[in-house]
Predict the 3D structure of the following.
Amino acid sequence: MNIREDAEKLRQDIEDEQNLKLKIALFGQPGAGKSSLINLIVGQPVTQTGATTDMTTEAKVIEHEELLLVDLPGYGTSKFPPNKWMEQFQPEELDLFLCVFASKFHEADTTFFKQLKEKGRVCIFVRNKQDDLWEEGKTTEQLEAEIIADVHKHVGSAENVHFVSCRTKAGLTELVDAIYAALDPAKREKYARSAKAYSKEHLEAKKAACEKSVYKYAGLAAANGLNPVPGVNIGVDISIMLKQFNDIRKSYGLSDEKVNKLIPSLLPIGKRVLEYSTKEGIMILLKRYAGREASIQIGRYVPFVGQAIAAAAGFGMTLAAGKSYLNDCHQLAEQILEEELGIRQ
Ligand SMILES: Nc1nc2c(ncn2[C@@H]2O[C@H](COP(=O)(O)OP(=O)(O)O)[C@@H](O)[C@H]2O)c(=O)[nH]1
Ligand SMILES: [Mg+2]
């Protein structure tokens, strides 16, 4: 294949990747905390929470990067008659279900779960509002054991129950681990790129998934050598680099607002992350990495970008710039996470 064919294939690859969403549905009674959990999964307030959402009569679909989150109103309520849902949505098209509950396990949820099970769908049980678990004379462990026993009585003893609190964020890391474990590798990458990381392991998964995109975007930017890089006898497509850098930033949740609110010790790296996601900043990085062609191990990249692009002038430079930006974002996100986890003093 020549470089034009490689580039066309890459462009299509990137487009297909972005069009193919990971679809996760949350079901459970109104007020259980589905919307709150969606916001925590994404790491941003993408959907309304609270009493008003109980009025929702139709499933709400929230799109975030490569994720589609379906917020299903209370199953079995008059607004959501059981059979209608199965007709309206094809459970086969959804990758994962989270059954969210916060009080006694509901009969309607049991029915729905059994229907999902018959269709071979994977379902994770989430007992939210763990912070509210309290009863005179009983320990939290006893109460949790009772809830697990109740779920097992209704849906079978093979099911794990994850205790979380959207309020305190307790149990979130373990829940996200369970989501990772339930997804196939390609879908796991989508989750990693699009959802918030709650542990260093989640961040590492994010980095690995983003790195694959870096190869593709860098390849395409090098192949479309539109914009000459000053002082370097090679052109690259800056708009593609710009898109890539901003995708990485979004993936790590590093919005302008978030970066501007950083504690002073993180500000220098934060500023770098902002600066390099502009055309001028990208040019600076590209110039820094000009001449990287010689050191690149072409064979490693052929599976991602094709033979012609892996050997093309400019690919070493765009790849090094992309990786360097990814490293900066990753390092900053890691420090922010440590801060959130209270590891840093
Ligand atoms: N105490 C406590 N309240 C929560 C928790 N998660 C959600 N809530 C509250 O429960 C209410 C319903 O939450 P929402 O996410 O809108 O539920 P949904 O109807 O299932 O989408 C809201 O007032 C939330 O603030 C939690 O973990 N603990
Ligand atoms: Mg809701």
Notes: The first strand starts at residue 22 and ends at 27.
